[in-house]
Amino acid sequence: MAEELNPDICVIGGGPGGIAVAVAAANANIPVVLAEKGNLGGTNVSGTIPSKALIAAANRYEALRSGPLLGVTGAPLQVNLAKVHEHIRSAMDAVAANNSAERLSALGVTVIRAPVRFVDQRTAVAGDATIRARRFVIATGARPAAPRIPGIEDVDCLTFDTLFDATRKMGHLIVLGATRYGLELAQAYTRLGIDATVIDDRPALADQDPELVALVLERLHAEGIRIRDRTPIVAVARRRGGVRVTVAGRSEGEEIPVDGSHLLLATGSRPNVDGLSLDRAGIELDESGIKVDRQLRTTNSRVYAIGDVVAGAPSVSRAEHHADIVVKSALQHALVRGDPDAAPAQVLTDPPLASVGLRESEAEHRHRSIRVLRLPFSESDLAQTERATAGLIKVIATDRGQIVGAAAVGREAGEIIALWSLAIANRLDISAIQSFVAPYPTRSDISRRAAATFTGLGLTPQPKWRIIDLLRKFGG
Prior knowledge:
The protein is an alpha/beta fold. The strands form 7 sheets. A 5-stranded parallel beta sheet has the order 4-3-2-8-20. A 5-stranded antiparallel beta sheet has the order 21-22-25-24-23, with helices on both faces. Strands 1-7-6-5 form a 4-stranded mixed beta sheet, with no helix packed on it. Helix 1 runs parallel beside helix 7. The chain is globular.
């Protein structure tokens, strides 16, 4: 039987961003509908969580393997891949439960399990329900996109949605894409005893600071991961027992075959907009995603778009940051100032790399004068006790002390960058970090030490500095 719904908010897509909007609306007693045609939790449950669970297992193995460096030895280590997959499935089930329709319904969200399509600028249809909402939020995410390589369409390729369902034993995993997800998984599988080769025609981690990327690649090469970045791919073909990727050699016309048992696509994604009939709602998009303004409104002012369906680096943190902006704009009617793409990002390799804000090259382009603060992790007493001194923190500030970017590579880099993310979001200057006091010993104190290297008159306006200088000279 047809049903008509008139909520204040209709969220299309049940990934992390969409669920965050729906829950925020329900907590504020605002009528909200969440429509999702697939699994609630999206690729976060099917891809991100299992990959991070795999990485956790691989890192635990590596920690035990390196025990002799600290004088700790034990029985020979073994990897039971069946048990590893049990651990992965357990993590997926736990996160899926937190995103279940039953939990969302209990919080006050009306959940519809059906595809959605717009019929006009203020109306959508989901299954048998017609939805006329005051505001719509599109949070349908993105899906893996196969690169344009001859033969790729004839090969069974794994994606993050299907990787952990693979039943055939891996002998050699070929990863197309030296992206953060590609490198994370290549290192994890290598540590668990599966060979991995990463191939990309672009530089590895092209969206990160090259200075810090070099430290990550140094470690990956040392662990035996073959990384062929800046290497054109000529063709992909089936072979008995697996797949062959042919790449260009250094000499003109030279071609090198790389044979593997499985092929994983980690090259990029495209927005999930098929079937939405966006044109009927007056919503414009291009190849990179739905077009939005800084408040994340689409070309239809009633409709917002958030997360991976919008152009930008895909991540859960970015999707949830977008959700927060939409909640403040659409529900609280607040003008949100700031950058919708200012969410931190993390590469969970070992060592991990985390960043927020502008890179050095971007800051140089946007600001007349910048200062770059660097401090090696070897300055941390805790890092010395753990023999985890490989790493670096890098902070970008204007000459007046405004923090515009930060990045770190090394153990717990993501935890370190969280403080800088808070500072940038709240427009704090470097003096705020200089006054930060961390418990001893902790790795987070590296942030205060880095901030302390900022020198000069930048933090104090020139007139005030002259008064301070006069008082100092004449004893005032």
